[in-house]
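Deliverable D4.2, example record:
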Amino acid sequence: MHGAKTLIAALLAWGAAAPWAAAGRPFLAVATALLMVNASTVHQSVTKAVHNVAARTAGLALALGATRLLGPTAGATAVIALLAALAGPRRTADDRLQIASTAVIALAATATDPLGGVVAPILQTLTGAVVGIAVNALLLPPLYLDESDSAVRELADAMGTLLRDMGAGLQGRQLASRAHGWLHRARSLDKRLAQAEEQVRQAHESLHWNTRCVAHARRGEVPSSEAFGALCGVSLQVRGIARTLADNARDHHTDHHLGHQFLDRYAETLQLAGAAVQEFVQRTGPAGSPDAIRRKRLRRALDGASAWHDTMTSLIDGGTLTKPGAWHVYGSLMTDMERLLTDLDHADAHSKSLPRQGVR
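Output generated by the structure prediction step:
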């Protein structure tokens, strides 16, 4: 389909511009159409078209001015290069390069036919832009909802797996040997967060001016967006828990070490919380199965984790699990877990579940 769209755009641009292009060769129109139809979203097609037309218009105007002052000479080329290098902020370097290259290529044309050398390329650029945008928008415009959903699910799975692994490690009395590895995995979640954020952003962008969304009444809907927002908060708590456990494992003060009774109960809470994070973004299952089943499983995991949390809080309040020097560790771990569960519970109550992968 991608190849077919590219071919159709090229042929339409040629057919639209050839009758009036110089010598019947509308190469600029075809090149512009190919650029627009290969944009990753319809929104990018439009924004690229605006930048492309503006840059080429500026380049042609620069070529016309340089030709009138200096003629098609090396001096005109030097002036164009100097202006392109010095004008505008550094972040617009790509636009300035396109302006300069267009101006240099157009020097000869503007010298022989000043008006035609400016108008004809602009018209070809506009024609190619319109054709490329139209083909990209009308012929199965790209959507990235599946990619966004998959990225968010992978992020939740990584968080949930880490929480469950920390729980299993605490149950196996492996805090000292595995805490550093948990912290490294927690820090690596930042990369997954960035990837998921980019996929969600691209999914949002792909909905702008997308005819497929209008036809299916899905304008502005990105189910993974709300889930990603919740996971951003959860990731902070996961990293906080891993950091506290790693710091405690490196602490050489014996009175700061966590008691086995607390670690055993906290381990079970971690495993329940991990299951809750993974259930939060699970697909609904086979066709026809109600979403209430998924929410019931998630609710069970959240309730179980909350119950263990309340139990541990009561034991700490009663002095059963405390060591005089470990209060700050208990407090940090309990606070992170409380925030994690609260954020997840609130997000589940106000968000929609992700659709089954592949169903659009």
